[in-house]
Design brief:
about 350 residues; alpha/beta; Rossmann fold; six-stranded parallel sheet; 12 strands; about 15% strand
């Protein structure tokens, strides 16, 4: 690298999406801040993701609103006009991010190693992180901090939440209450567990003295799934789906006793709050995308699914395909993990 990290004054971080990934990125950027507390950091981030992280200390955010199409690139260029950073951390492998990076002027442009620098990323960077064989996404991100000479790569999170949102969560969940929060919906319906199985797990938790709260975003998919779970349950489930902001949801996840979720952003939000997560995986490798501090509670059909679709060695991070893979996850297997935590 042509830059001595100790002489850095300004850093730009490019990571637009998604919720889970920006949670991993927070651990990385805060590791940098611990070692270089005077470094000026600018984060180019997606509009939705900004709503979760906008209260992070000592970070300037520049929002990239992909809904504006081509105009979003010109808006980014205008927002950063006349600025030159010492370092760019190009942390997103997507053509959209590659194009967005052209609006960012930086002396040192760090991207992924050649094996991971897809979608043209290698064309717009001049330095690479160390290659890793089988990293979790968070570990892959920590490679950027390591490239800057950061020594302590232990993930820690400080995501501030407004007092009003903390109070909202306290109204929902009292001190010492046993609460299971189910964030049932992933971004794609095929990654969701079956509603009747969510309901069976919810009934089991209720029988153990837990309140069960359903949480999630305002999409029709999420609301419909919540209604199906409630209809299939014999217990009194509480429905907050579509009724919380991201920071309110973060505060609720902090107060939860345990969280149940498929491969979706709230699972990683819960990790940042130190709450145990039972992750349900079939399409993606939980070794790569599972809840980082709760891998021991993951229930996975991924190996079985991949073995049925591929022969021999499979590239790390390969996704399994199919609409019904989550059916391979049994209620008994999930109850077993729940009872370990309980």
């Amino acid at each position: 690298m042509s830059l001595d990290p100790n002489t850095m004054n300004s850093l730009c971080l490019l990571r637009l999406s998604a919720i889970g990934d920006v949670c991993h990125a927070v651990a990385m950027v805060q590791a940098i801040q611990r070692q270089y507390p005077h470094l000026k950091i600018t984060w180019v981030i997606g509009k939705v993701e900004y709503q979760l992280l906008k209260h992070l200390p000592d970070i300037e955010f520049v929002i990239f609103d992909k809904s504006k199409g081509w105009r979003s690139y010109f808006n980014l260029r205008d927002a950063l006009k006349g600025r030159r950073f010492d370092v760019l951390l190009h942390m997103q492998v997507a053509l959209r991010a590659t194009l967005a990076s052209l609006a960012i002027s930086a002396k040192v442009r760090i991207g992924f190693d050649r094996a991971r620098a897809k979608e043209g990323q290698w064309l717009v960077t001049n330095h690479q992180v160390e290659p890793l064989g089988q990293p979790h996404v968070l570990e892959g991100f920590m490679g950027f901090a390591k490239a800057l000479g950061v020594k302590d790569l232990t993930p820690q999170w400080n995501i501030p939440v407004p007092e009003a949102d903390t109070a909202f969560a306290a109204e929902q969940i009292g001190e010492g209450e046993k609460v299971l929060v189910i964030c049932a919906a992933a971004s794609k319906a095929e990654r969701n567990w079956l509603p009747e199985r969510y309901a069976e797990l919810a009934d089991h938790a209720a029988s153990k003295g837990y309140r069960v709260i359903l949480c999630g975003g305002p999409t029709a998919l999420e609301k419909n799934l919540a209604e199906q779970i409630i209809a299939a349950s014999t217990s009194n489930l509480e429905n907050l789906v579509g009724k919380t902001s991201l920071t309110q949801l973060l505060a609720i996840l902090k107060r939860a006793s345990v969280v149940l979720a498929p491969d979706t952003g709230p699972a990683h939000m819960a990790v940042t709050q130190g709450t145990p997560v039972i992750g349900l995986y079939a399409h993606s490798n939980p070794g790569r995308t599972g809840p980082y501090l709760s891998q021991q509670y993951v229930v996975s059909a991924y190996d079985q699914a991949i073995a049925s679709q591929h022969q021999g060695d499979v590239k790390w991070g390969t996704r399994a395909r199919g609409e019904h893979l989550m059916e391979m996850i049994s209620v008994d297997a999930v109850i077993e993990k729940f009872d370990q935590i309980h």
